Amino acid sequence: MTTPGARDVSAPAGRWVTEVIPTSFERVDTTDDDAAEWMTQRYRRPEGAFVRLNMVTTLTGSSAGADGSSASISSRVDRLILGTIRREADVVVVGAETVRAEGSMLPKTARMAIVTSSGDLGEGSLRRRDGRDAPPALILCRPEDAARVEAAIGDAPAETVVVPGSPRAHDRGETPHGDARLHPADIVHALGARGLDRIVCEGGAGLATQFVGAGVVDEVCVTVSPLLEPVHHPFLSLTASVATEVTGMLVDDAGFSYRRLTIRR
After folding, report:
1. For residue 157, what pLDDT band results from cuts at 50, 70 and 90?
2. CA torsion angle for 52, 198, 34, 263 (degrees, to 10)?
């Protein structure tokens, strides 16, 4: 839903996608049946544990459009890439604020994990796609929040996962004592203990910033939408530089670009 009185600035729809990094200049018609395999070849992750961040931003750095969601700055190609990345993952990690703002369809090919301290997921969240069977979402919370979270989620298709805090974040000064947030390293550890070590974090912006700032992300996948929007929710709000290398870049005929940035250790 667009803000009343606002101009329609929804993102244009692209069809053709060209690879510019590496400079193969190969291109694909994303309406063709072979487009999914073409994308899979470019977004295939390395073997073993791997953490990706997948986000969309406008040219001005906003993670949301005029309607307050990322849907209005996304595109059909972006959603094709989203599906590709999810198929390469064991689990999709999102914050509860994002679920409340945008709702959430349980993924077809990966588990969903939601980070929350309250269990408030909003109305109509955690829907199963077309009535298909899907494993319940994992609701990640601190031990002291577990009872409140379980009461809040009720009979939703979800399972509460208590994530104990570890001293390592406090020892490095990354998270102040008494901070109510889960530390990303503890989230990654808890999911890995369940055999879910191929992770994609899809935000929102606050959780994305925490993951990158904590140094747990191996690769950032970012769609840049050709829109100029006010920045109420910055894509990332980092306090220090993060060294990266552009290992992949696609562009489409609507002006979107799709980058993969490897984090340098």
Report:
1. confident
2. 30
